[in-house]
UniProtKB/TrEMBL annotation:
Residues 1-26 have a biased composition (Low complexity). It comes from Streptomyces javensis. It is found in: Cell membrane. Keywords: Cell membrane, Membrane, Transmembrane, Transmembrane helix. It comes from the Bacteria. It is a multi-pass membrane protein. The keyword Transmembrane helix applies. This is Permease. Residues 1-36 are annotated as: Disordered. The chain crosses the membrane at residues 43-60, 72-101, 150-174, 181-199, 233-254, 266-282, 328-351. Belongs to the UPF0718 family. Residues 27-36 have a biased composition (Basic and acidic residues).
Length: 352
């Protein structure tokens, strides 16, 4: 019996030792044989990119010295440098208002009658000097605090388009066409109010799914402010760069005959720039400079670009879907686009 017990103990000890040795050598085997042992991180990627640039500096220098590349970089730099101060100022003021001004303030300031509250909310959009990324959560907070959805939607559409930062940027971008500022204000405010009244008349409660909690729930005021600033700078700055790249490409790469062909047809030019505004998704503090660079197109077509962009683009559609629901966005976005194009065309024909 003792011999059997000792043999079993010896066998168990041997098994444990073998398991321990296998476990100790397994990481070494995995590091040696598993290709996943070496990770490709951002630092390694940057080093490899720099090495490629150093090795191929001759062809890169020749490519950058080409007239097309020089023209592209000139337009891109000009658009970014002109728009950047307005973007930063708008982001800071938007974060201040979104964090330190309670949504209940807007609820108390708006009239109780929806038909009257819609234009008041549309004009009140001028007190939110930020991009359209900030207007969606604020509109959601208004709905959550009991503001009629028609007024909240009018505020959502007007705030990015008629606030002082955007109008000042438009005046700087079009120094010889001051009527563009007034035309943008009139067209944007009219579209915002018309969509609010349209929702009041035809909208249904089951199409609108309001958000469940505040945008900065669980954060202190300071943390919420800097979180809002970081979010808006990353998003708005990224879209500004994309928009500047697109404008520079249109100016430097696309044949002038193509642009003239689209610009010479009044209907095609308006639709082309309206669709371009949706696709580029440029922040409203910067879109005036991109529109000003598209000098081949008429002022009316560029007005459509400025009115459509802050109201409906790809990022706004995604944000509206996440905030109010897919059923709302699928109905609200196409109606806003059509109305914005029509109003821009009419206002441009009268004022421009």
């Amino acid at each position: 019996m003792t011999t059997t017990t000792e043999a079993a103990s010896t066998e168990a000890a041997s098994t444990e030792a073998a398991s321990t040795e296998a476990a100790s050598t397994e990481p070494g085997r995995r590091d040696a044989g598993d290709p996943r042992g070496g990770r490709f991180d951002s630092s390694l990627g940057l080093i490899m990119l720099l090495l490629v640039v150093v090795v191929a500096q001759g062809p890169v220098r020749r490519a950058l010295s080409a007239p097309v590349a020089q023209s592209w970089m000139t337009v891109f730099t000009a658009v970014v440098l002109q728009a950047l101060p307005f973007l930063v100022l708008g982001v800071l003021l938007s974060a201040l208002i979104a964090v330190f001004v309670p949504p209940s303030f807007f609820a108390r300031a708006l009239p109780r009658r929806p038909a009257v509250a819609v234009p008041v909310a549309g004009v009140a959009g001028a007190v939110l000097p930020g991009c359209e990324c900030a207007s969606v959560p604020v509109a959601g907070a208004l709905v959550r605090r009991g503001v009629t959805p028609a007024a909240a939607l009018a505020f959502l559409l007007s705030a990015p388009a008629i606030n002082p930062i955007v109008l000042t940027a438009t005046a700087v971008a079009f120094p010889r066409q001051p009527q563009m500022v007034f035309a943008r204000f009139v067209a944007s405010l009219f579209v915002a109010c018309a969509m609010g009244w349209l929702w009041q008349r035809l909208g249904r409660a089951d199409w609108l799914r309001p958000p469940d909690r505040p945008a900065f729930h669980g954060h202190g005021k300071g943390a919420a402010f800097w979180a809002s600033v970081r979010h808006d700078v990353m998003h708005a700055g990224g879209f500004l760069v994309v928009g500047a790249m697109a404008a520079a490409t249109l100016k430097a790469v696309v044949p002038a005959s193509w642009l003239r062909g689209a610009a010479d047809d009044p209907v095609v030019s308006i639709l082309a720039l309206a669709v371009l505004a949706v696709l580029l998704s440029i922040c409203s503090e910067a879109d005036a400079f991109v529109a000003a660079s598209l000098s081949q197109f008429s002022l009316t077509a560029r007005l459509a670009f400025l009115v459509v962009g802050p109201m409906i683009d790809l990022k706004l559609f995604a944000m509206q879907t996440g905030t109010f629901g897919r059923g709302f966005a699928l109905r609200f976005a196409p109606a806003t686009f059509v109305l914005a194009v029509l109003v821009s065309t009419l206002v441009g024909a009268v004022l421009l």
